[in-house]
Write a structure and sequence with these properties.
alpha+beta; single chain; seven-stranded antiparallel beta sheet; about 170 residues; 3 helices; two-stranded antiparallel sheet; disordered N terminus; Protein Transport Mog1p, Chain A; globular
Amino acid sequence: MKRFAISLFVIFIIFVCSNAYAMKNDPDGFRGIKWETKISDLNKNEFTFDHTEENFLIYTRETDELKIGAAKLDVIYYIFWHDKLSGVFISGKGQSNFDSLLLVLQEKYGKGIQNNQFIPEYTWFGKKTYILIKYESFKNEFGCRLGSIKVGEENEKWEKDQAKKGAQNDL
């Protein structure tokens, strides 16, 4: 009985917390491109391959205005995994640009979660998308990641499968 009561309490806390911090306006992509869109389905003249990181192909978009609200940005990277748009990484410099982008995100998606009041890092979780923004004062830089929850889960499963195969076949 005690275990059951504890389980109900944990479920209640998760439900309350998830609703209290639920992302409003859960996006299904970024700047008109839906998550899981294949790079091969996009205008090749508009996107430029930039680099790879592990199993991800990173592109920039020629037509992107490097600005969101009043925040000036250095770069917007479009991240593809297995030919599907899995996320976007935005970076820039300066506390004021971070603050401006944070205000835009809070206006659009809600307050967000800040786990430590002394660390300028905020997260949002929706059913389709997660967002993380963080300011690193010692570098005077910020980064913001918007990503597909579904593609992220697929990637995590793929990596676990690769580890199992490696453990069976490569050792």
